[in-house]
Design goal:
The protein is of the alpha/beta class. The protein folds into two domains: 1-228, Metallo-beta-lactamase, Chain A (4-Layer Sandwich), CATH 3.60.15; 231-257 and 266-342, no CATH class. 35% of the residues lie in helices and 20% in strands. It has 13 helices and 15 strands. Helix 10 runs antiparallel to helix 11 (270-292). It binds zinc ion.
Length: 342
């Protein structure tokens, strides 16, 4: 699962979303009120949410250090209360980095599996094929001067022990060195209360990552999920298998909410969240029917068009890969297609 990070980086680069590209122009940032004292904040293609109470702020992902500093200044100007809780959606570097900015006042909560993901690199796995190409002097490590692509861009976030070399173990761990580890972890469900408000975190299982939480704001009738729930947008991938995605979206849809808030792109309503679940069920059923009828992958990809989702972002670009992933799972082989963090 952690190895997928480098594949994801390649995906981000191809999509023109690399941090280097973003750094050349000022980031797009903003804060929009959702309802009551619940807000959604944007940093380029990433979003987080926060709830203001008289006793402080409960927020979700800090996204990165620069954005967290910007957000902290906005909090001070607009609300004049400190951050008391940072509630993580999952451990991926592009959502969870930068929390140290709030460490002076906040408690950090994440699913228990986040700790394993953030643990020091273990063992000595070989360099990935991409990293082998970077390793000009063939010493089995990537020096800063050798690094290209994602490792060059986030060298310090890969270099856990700050020795100036990125090892196979550090690549496998991912660029998570600026993720401030949760100070409180939970297993199934966890509720924080502050200033008369409640936020409940519920574990989503193994879809996308094995440490994902959905945040539920019962008074505001809102949920927040990064990467697992997407609105009018197909998921970046269906790893480890479509069943885990159906389980996760079912958990989200079982909550009482009207506002479906996401870590990327559009937000929506309960109906939109239900549509996202229905897409997963339709693709699972459609592939199963194709396999039962003796059709091969290419034929299923051609005939299972899922037209009901034609208006969804990535319908034209990722549907075939989703069908391949579901097909591979149903045929008992591993999905051949890498999945993204987005
Ligand atoms: Zn994401």
């Amino acid at each position: 699962m952690r190895l997928t990070t480098s594949l994801v980086l390649a995906t981000c680069l191809l999509a023109g979303l690399a941090p280097a590209a973003e750094a050349q122009q000022p980031p797009t940032r903003g804060i929009v009120n959702v309802t009551g004292q619940l807000y959604r904040a944007q940093n380029n293609n990433h979003y987080t949410v926060f709830l203001v109470t008289p006793e402080g702020i409960i927020m979700s992902d800090p996204i990165n250090r620069d954005f967290a500093r910007w957000l902290k200044a906005e909090y001070a100007t607009r609300f004049k209360v400190p951050v008391r809780y940072v509630l993580y959606t999952h451990r991926d570097w592009d959502h969870a980095s930068g929390g140290v900015v709030f460490a002076d006042t906040a408690e950090f909560v994440g699913h228990r599996n986040m700790l394993a993901a953030l643990a020091p690199p273990a063992g000595n796995p070989p360099l990935t094929p991409d990293a082998v190409k970077m390793d000009g002097n063939k010493n089995g490590l990537v020096e800063r001067s050798e690094a290209t692509g994602a490792i060059q861009e986030r060298f310090d976030m890969f270099d856990y022990n700050r020795d100036g070399f990125v090892s196979g173990g550090e690549i496998a761990r991912g660029s998570v060195s600026d993720v401030y580890a949760p100070t409180t972890t939970y297993t199934d469900r966890h509720t924080v209360t502050l200033g008369g408000k409640r936020v409940t975190m519920t574990y989503l299982g193994i879809a996308h990552a094995d440490d994902s939480s959905v945040l539920h704001f019962p008074d505001e009738r809102a949920v927040f999920s990064a990467d697992v729930m997407q609105i009018k947008r197909l998921p970046g991938g269906l790893a480890p298998h479509v069943g885990s995605w159906i389980d996760a979206l079912s958990i989200i849809n079982s909550l009482d909410f009207e506002h479906a808030l996401t870590g990327h792109a559009l937000s929506g309503t309960k109906k939109d969240a239900a549509d996202s679940l229905r897409y997963l069920e339709d693709i699972a059923k459609g592939v199963a029917a194709g396999v039962a009828a003796g059709r091969g992958l290419a034929e299923i990809q051609k005939t299972l068009t899922l037209d009901a989702y034609k208006g969804f972002e990535r319908w034209d670009t990722i549907r075939a890969a989703h069908i391949e992933a579901v097909y591979s799972t149903m045929r008992g082989s591993r999905p051949a297609t890498p999945t993204g963090t987005r």
